[in-house]
Design goal:
Length: about 150
């Protein structure tokens, strides 16, 4: 599975206005519910449950919240670029402004881990992160994420 299987320009949320981690997770759950016909409350609860285990803020202003959901039939991704960084309890204690949500079916084990690894690899590329931070255009952000992944697929 590749990032372009998870994302589309419609699942990119540039310049998202939120004031807290909880509000961010609610906005992401709302968007995911629109896409997948699952209850936003169930999605939000899955994300909160995962955050209770430990923050998904991976450092450098990036978070990769994720959760597994019963009733989901495929992996789903949503990318949000925040208008202003928010506190996220990240491992480096820095605020977060780039967020890649991954939702997976309950039994997706290895696929879930593989996509987490791909997302992490793409977002470790400082050049790509800077390009993403320099635009508010969903199509451009999508291209940066997908082009970065495909350039390292070989």
């Amino acid at each position: 599975m590749e990032l372009n299987d998870l994302l589309s320009a419609e699942t990119i949320l540039p310049n998202l206005k939120v004031n807290s981690k909880k509000q961010l997770l609610q906005e992401l759950a709302d968007k995911a519910a629109e896409l997948n016909l699952l209850a936003k409350r169930d999605i939000f609860e899955a994300l909160l449950q995962r955050e209770r285990l430990g923050s998904t803020g991976v450092g450098n202003g990036i978070a990769i919240p994720h959760g597994k959901l019963q009733g989901l039939d495929r992996l789903v991704g949503i990318f949000a670029q925040l208008e202003s960084p928010i506190a996220f309890d990240a491992i480096d204690d820095q605020p977060v402004d780039l967020v890649f949500l991954i939702l997976a079916p309950e039994g997706s084990g290895a696929d879930h881990l593989r996509i987490l690894s791909k997302v992490s690899r793409v977002l470790r590329n400082d050049e790509i992160v800077q390009k993403i931070r320099s635009t508010k255009d969903a199509s451009a952000i999508y291209s940066f994420l997908i082009d970065e992944e495909t350039s390292h697929a070989a």
